[in-house]
Amino acid sequence: MDVVLLSRLQFAAATMFHFLFVPLTLGLSILVAWMETQWVRTGDETYLRMTKFWGKIFLINFALGVVTGITLEFQFGTNWSRYSAYVGDIFGSLLAIEASAAFFLESTMIGVWIFGWKKLSAKAHAAVMWLVAFASSLSAVWILTANAWMQHPVGYTIRDGRAEVTRFLDVVTNPFAILEILHTLSGAYILSAFFVMGVSAWYLLKQQHIDFFHRSFRTALIFGAVFSLFSVVQGDIHGADVARKQPAKLAAMEALWETQKRAPLILFAWPDQEKEKNVIEFGKIPGVVSLLALRDINAEVKGLKDFPKEERPPVLLTSFAFKGMVGLGFYFVLITLIGLYLRNRLLDSPRYLKIMMFSLPLPYIANQLGWIVTEVGRQPWIVYGLMKTSDAVSPIAVSQVATTLAAFVLVYGLLGMVGAFLVVRHIRKGPEPETATA
Amino acid sequence: MDLQTIWFLLWGLLWAVFFLTDGFDFGVGTLLPFVGKTDEERRIMLNSVGPVWDGNEVWLITAGGVTFAAFPKVYAVMFSSLYSALMLILFALILRGVSFEFRSKVENPRWRQVWDMANVFGSALPALLFGVAFANIFRGIPIDASGMYQGNLFTLLNPYGLLGGVLFLLMFVMHGALWLNMKTTGPVKERAAALIYKLWPVQVAVAVIFLVASWFSTRLYDNYLKHPAMFLVILLAVAGLLAIPFLHKKAKAFSAWLASAVFIAGATFFGVLGLFPYLFPSSIDPAFGLTAQNASSSPLTLKIMLIVVLLFIPVVIAYQIWTYRLFRHPITEEDLGYEEAY
After folding, report:
1. What is the predicted ipTM?
2. Is B18 part of any domain?
3. Is residue B312 part of a domain?
4. Can you list the alpha helix ranges (DSSP code H) found in A246-361?
5. Does A341 touch chain B (CB under 8 A)?
6. What is the pTM of this model?
7. Contact A70 B90 (CB under 8 A)
8. Which residue of B55, B90, B300 is in closest CB contact with A74?
9. How far apart are CA A383 and CA A389, in angstroms?
10. Is residue A53 predicted with pLDDT exceeding 50?
11. Which structural domain, as residue segments, surrounds residue A424?
12. Position B271 in a domain
């Protein structure tokens, strides 16, 4: 194994683990802030108990998200130093802005929220949670703007062997970034909605804390339905944009080898990178990819064979991840619409509740798959069309990366287990009994 | 003053602010088993930094981010050369970060002991390693013309580097003891208060040895001899250090803590100003070193980032001060009774 592969594995492990926690932070902060606001508005104690119960899960999850995020920022320097020197002018700026404009606010206010229950008025305390929620999503905006620049670099020129910014406004209003932000945020909000619904369904099935979890479920249901619908519609626009800006990625997503008009959607394809074809194929629907990607059923879509071999992303992984994500996306719409239909008789719909309970992990999978499409589909480029991943790595020894990769797997594995243990334990314990909280 | 020089100073300033804010919670974490004898005492210590430690740590993220944005080459070479040391710091910070949140969630004493140890290790190791790293930067790092590092983790563990590590650890432990003296009552405060007197002479001795060793091991003083007015920074640091026991004796807890903050900032700037224009000097050949001029971003990026920093950092400082004031009271039992408390 070489330094490039090991560093890629390490970054993949670190980001994917990080992104187990980020989406819940993004969405649950909003739900908790809304619950607390409801408490302030109505004085109804159940809302306070909801704030505290879900808030505690939020905090455990938040801690894991923060600590795993710090390593990512520094890994650009430790493992991808040639990349860092090449793009620091633009990419580094976006990370620095994220820290000073968003992450500071989030981290400072979370401390105020945890310890400020008796220091602040109820209204101010709820406002602090809104600041946390706002700052988390704002953090995501900056990080995703940085990632979008790797996908579709804009507003730069190459001078002295590195990318330098020429039009900063273009960088921060990169249309690719706007689409990526909307898609990632809605994916995160869906995940947190399904998390709250899944846990609530479990309690509703056990017939415990019915009022409490009924309200939690219905709040999350609306949140989840809105963003599931949004995500599918917006994802279509995002996909069409990718088709124009990253044609090789699109071809890999659709497992399309030959350049063709009326390019088909293949429901199931098992692509073989070496043989340059799909060894298994069924469910071909002609014209659909042309229509979705280029908005014209007769349009010509460029196939993988028209890209040099060394500029094709891993097709199997990209296409499986893409189809899995899309399939799950449609499932989220369907199941939340059914939920809306059943919203007034949830308690009489145990089968639906059971489905929702088991659906809890699905958005986690969808979020990870989405990132696989984004990042693996961009290969072999680290900055699309500008710099190859293999040219980006640090001049460090294999043994160094191998050691830290092993350490990441070990430490993150343990942390994941401890985190899961604490969250499950807290969920099992259930909300505080009524009147015990003040 | 040109943009590169302004950014050089801001770079030093961000590291200094990181050291003087997160420094005291590193100190408190290191002192956990020495000052906190019972579970409740340890909880008092952890909760005394509870509302602020997370925000403090973002100064590290910002210092790192600003290095990336303003001096990408430094970011690239610094973090890849110091790979092993930085990874150790990161893993330590991970364990420390979760230990706050995890520790008191379970009543079991062994569980708490494990996370307390994670906090001690996660606080003391970064304190030490940041000192080792910066002392080595003061001294010069063996990088060649292409920025390739010609050494390993043990290259950094030279006597001067280790001395820097001890200095930083002592600075942060003192800073933490002064914080506990200000923010707690009862036995924790008493132990911290007594510790300050014991630590201080050691800290003075190490600081003096470090200043002398810097004369022989580094070229930091070249700048000072060229611009003698800069000696004021050293004087300021020394004044901060000398004021600590004096203010502490007068029971001016906050002023004593502030004096320690001045010492930390002064010690950082002693090195930073001595380094100028180098951010990352080479010990192989001065020409290979990375300077504010040869390692900076484009002028446009420096300008944009200057606007960003001048816009946001004062706001950050304002709401962080608000937070410190909101939680300025010494920790009471009522604070520990909070469900959300650590």
Report:
1. 0.91
2. no
3. yes
4. 247-253, 288-294, 315-341, 350-359
5. no
6. 0.93
7. yes
8. B90
9. 8
10. yes
11. 3-429
12. yes
